[in-house]
Amino acid sequence: LAERQRRSREKAMAMMRAAQSNFAGMNAAELGEKEDEAVEDSSNTQSPETSSSPHRPVRATSFGSTYSTTSSIQTSGSEAGGLPSTVMMESEPEVAAVPPRLLKERPRCIICSEFEVMDTASVQKEHAEDGEGMRKRSKKRAENALGFVGYIQPSTVLKGGGGPPPDLGSPLSPVREFVGNHVALCGHAVHSECCESYLATVSQREDRVIGKRDEFKCPLCQRLSNCLVPFIDVGSDWVQPPTNSLYCLPTSDSETEQEKMVVDPPASAPPPDLGQFLSSTPWWVSRTSSNVIWDGQSGFLQQSSGLSPESTPESSPHKSGRRRVRRPLTKKDLYAAWNAMMRTPRFVRKRLRSRASQTDGGSGYGRDDHPHNSEPEESSGETVVWRRFMDQVSDLSYRADSKRLGDEHLHDLFGEFRHYVVEKYAYNMANRFAGGEPTEWPFCVFNEPLSDQRRQEMSREKILSKLLLAIQAFTYSCCCEAFEAKRAYRKSMESGRSKSDSALDSVLSKFGIAGVTCGGELVVMPNPVLEKDNGLQPFEGRIGKLRYLGLALLAASGAVAADVVQLALSFPTEKATAEGKNTDREKKPDRAPIAYPILLGNVLTHVIAAMCATCGRGRALSDSLDLAWSPPFSSMGSFVSSDDLTTGMSVDSVVEDCEGFIKLGILARMLQVLLGGLRAPSAGFPYPSSVLMLLQEYIRKCSESDNNAESSWKTSCARLLMAALSGQEDTDATRAMEVFLPTSDHVDDACESALSAACSFLIDAGTILQILLPSVVLRYNATLEIPGPQSTTTSSVDLFDKLRSNFMIEPLSDMVSSPLTLEIVSNWYRTAEQQGKMALEQGDSFPSTKSTLRGRLYRTQGFREFDWPSAGFVAKSENGQKNKGPLRVGTEEQPEDGPSAMQIERLAPTSGSLVTSDVISRRTPLVAYSSRKIIPLLGGYSTGSARASTRPRVAGMPVAYTDLYAELGTLMPECEQTAVCLVCGEVLNAGGKGECTRHSYKCGAGAGIFFLLQECSALILHRSKAAYIHSPYVDSHGETPQHRGRPLNLDLDRYEHLREVWFGHGVRQHVLAERGSSRQVILPDFY
User: Fold this and answer.
1) pLDDT of amino acid 351
2) 3-state class of 584 per DSSP?
3) In terms of C-beta density within 10 A (0-12 exposed, 13-18 middle, 19 or more buried), how is residue 814 classed?
4) pTM of the predicted model, to two decimals?
């Protein structure tokens, strides 16, 4: 004991001495830096023309707060037509290009306990030391990246609430068919090398408990983990208020100081409408850049006069007097950009001067004309960690979909963002039919050997697909956490009316939110405080910790911003018209799209991808990270500017970019639902003229209506449809007779569904916007008011108007009236129609093998009337028409007394928490004579949403245990152990045959919660591991006796706990906890 105490004292003294020396070095370095700057300022003032060092770039604005996109930044003479990266201020002295960091200290590794102060003192000290030692330490630091411990798991919580997948061609296939990826972070940081050493130490010990070598427990909190998310340093301008906000950012917790800083700002101009945004945005690259062409697959190409990308071979020498077309970006170029984007800016700060002198100095090359350097440097530690994370997301989701759907179903449709998997399967099947041998991707696509350059380009396409899939996982995770936060918030508000506010405060701190507004629909994030908790305040709570993942996505997307925006939003391009020619299609092999057309994919994911791109680009400009990229990369892959930008709107902020993308997403989601509601084929209407006549008559009837709000909405929806169908020609009349012909009633139903979908989209997109840009809360501070518990929204029209006013969005009629908006909408429909026709293309000119190949490459799920995120759907009525569409959070409807528990056709499923204030007190269990005889299931099962099954299924859990026992005993008398899935209600035989395990893969992507009837116990299961948990049925004393003789009833508190485990994605964690503390051993795959 004395020896351990002595060692502890020595270790503490050593740490104190290290901190003292570090503090002294910081002061000395800062003093020396100030003296150097003073000397440089004096030399620049004396002879600015003969100064050997160029001016340091000065950012026009900051990231995420003030105007900071490329449209607001001017370029020098050598950068004309290239990447507008800096602004040269001739009248100002040299100013540091890197803004102050948000975090005062670098997160400390929980294993080695090393931390670093977030400044440049240590880097300056290293430059003064021996070069060999500095290089060794820099290389070790670059390889040993710091990351946050997280856990990725497939999920079906917001994929219709769980349950088996639907049949092929079902309207609910976009919601329930594929699993989602949920990512949860505990907030603890660890070095990549420390994590590998820790795994090597504990892997043998934890294999028996966890069962997977790629899973481990967090060394500090012992939460289940399987991945690392790289730490991305961000500047303090990430949380600073916008210039047009009505709030000033406080830097202290003192109320008096905050009151002093809140002043009346000058009146600011209103945000631009959608037409103004489209006329000035540089993200519509093909419109603003005449020398740029979209390659039709993954990126933009810079074309010169008289040459096209196809006319210039890759190996042709550079001829004098002619500019060759620059090569497309490769995987190595992308890794080189990620090395700069994910590296802490202080590590590259000293290199900015030399890099700027190389690109802007007397070398004879500008940023665009710089010759290609040697091979880019190896991937840094952060890039390696991020690549592993993307691979894990891709692999876990594919394996989960394979077990959920089966190989035969999955091969019919692989889903979005898996184009390389689609091409590999389609071309190998075609080669096998022709007598060839299967090969790996991308060699199976081409019938000729590929050069190293071409292989690198194809690898970059694969990385882009995985990046978009990671963005989809981030979107799904944010929606899941927001859904659970709203459910817990409403529950605390209901229970806290007569109690203290401790329950509400607990919910707010748990999720890191400020409240919920708009009738319990929209989550409001707290105002960011710069100095609170040393900059960690924006990362508090479960939702706040997702910002670590968001920053990593910003860094990865910012390097390919223009490509990601084009893939996500499908702006009109010149290449789109050229692809319509049969000659071009016959020369090149058919390629599956990296991302579906926006009308055929998940609109929310597409919009979030575009938001990540513009925010990531803003961070690169704010931190001057673009100066550390390789010269050929900057102007080609990240952003392409135009010399023809109009001066009608010269300033465009990152926030306004995101707002413009959200407006486009609203129109896309509305048009998607309208086309799906009218049962438009994936190849488009064969009779657009008839539909246009119907819409014109519908608009005339709406103008005669007395309800101005609803008639205005329906008129805007009809005009949006007319804009999409304008310019389309009728096809064969015989084919038109075989297609469903919509009527005015169908248009009415489609407009109502579009209103509900627009509200849901705006809620989800607005929540994620607050997560990606914490400063945007300050922009909407005056409109995002958190009401009391009695505040509700009367109708969907009122809800949409409230959401629209909160996010400063103009009326829908104004958005539809813009000519540029109509051009984009028409292009969306035309692009989706072309892909649908290619998937169904048949005829004498194409052999059967060719048509089958194209059918597999271009197959989609059609126009999505329903889409995730959704926790459940209302059952359809007997005439086949839906009653209310997707259920939103807060619109729970519980089954009344009367129907039997086995009659599922007439019972509507629910989502959210149980409203029990009008049923019975929570202090005691429900009794048999309660007015509520059936309690809804945990998931969102509904009639017609799953495949037909021969097993019986319950629609809810009866209050009395004897009722459930009597019903299931008569239906399955031969079962010795009967299990009821609490997610979808399917009744299974749990007699040691593994039916529950197999069902969990189809119902919950490997997670399941069951009730064992004969044992009167609950069973939680994840993959092959299972554990017992408390029974939801208790007696009058709140217990479940082993020898039952007293009546048992459903306890809502215990049942609500199971609901929290399901919606909180805590099944796997609870399985490990229960197996670790229980003496009962359940064999793998027993249930």
Assistant:
1) 44
2) helix
3) middle
4) 0.83
587-596, 617-626, 685-694 — which is least confidently predicted?
617-626
**Which 3 state secondary structure label does DSSP give 247?**
coil
Percentage with pLDDT > 70 across the chain: 67
Q: Return all residues near 688 (Cβ < 8 A) that are at least 6 apart.
A: 725, 728, 729, 730
Give the pLDDT mean for 630-642.
37
> Exposure pattern of 101-132 as b/e (b: 16+ CB <10 Å)?
bbbeebbebbbeeeeebbbbbbbbbbeeeeee
Q: Give the C-alpha separation, 845 to 840, whole Å.
A: 14
Q: Which tokens hold the place of 717?
A: 């929806």
The predicted pLDDT at position 328 comes to: 67
* Residue 309 near residue 293 (C-beta atoms within 8 A): yes
Whose structure tokens read 């081409």? 446
Token pair of 29 as six digits: 């370095």
State the DSSP code for 1078: -
What gap in Å lies between CA 803 and CA 131, rounded to an integer? 58
Each residue's pLDDT tens digit, 1054-1076: 999 999 999 999 998 899 888 88
CA distance 727 to 712: 25
For residues 964 and 957, the answer to whether their CB atoms sit within 8 Å is yes
What would the DSSP string read from start to end of 323-377?
PPPPPPP-HHHHHHHHHHHSS-HHHHGGGHHHHHHHHHSTTS--TTTPPP-SSPP
Q: Which residue has the tokens 């209310």?
A: 884
Calpha distance 404→177 (Å, rounded) = 9
Copy the structure tokens of residue 1039. 């217990």
The pLDDT tens digits of the residues spanning 259-272 come to 333 334 344 457 78
Give me 244's structure tokens. Answer: 């047009």
Q: Which residue has the tokens 């070069």?
A: 131
Which of 97-106, 292-301, 926-935, 984-993 comes out lowest in average pLDDT? 926-935
572 Cβ contact partners less than 8 Å away, ≥ 6 residues apart: 284, 286, 287, 823, 824, 827
Residue 157 has pLDDT above 80, yes or no: yes
Give Cβ neighbours of residue 316 (< 8 Å, ≥ 6 apart): 324
pLDDT of residue 911: 36
Inform me whether the pLDDT recorded for 383 exceeds 60: yes
Distance between CA atoms of 1055 and 938, rounded to whole angstroms?
9
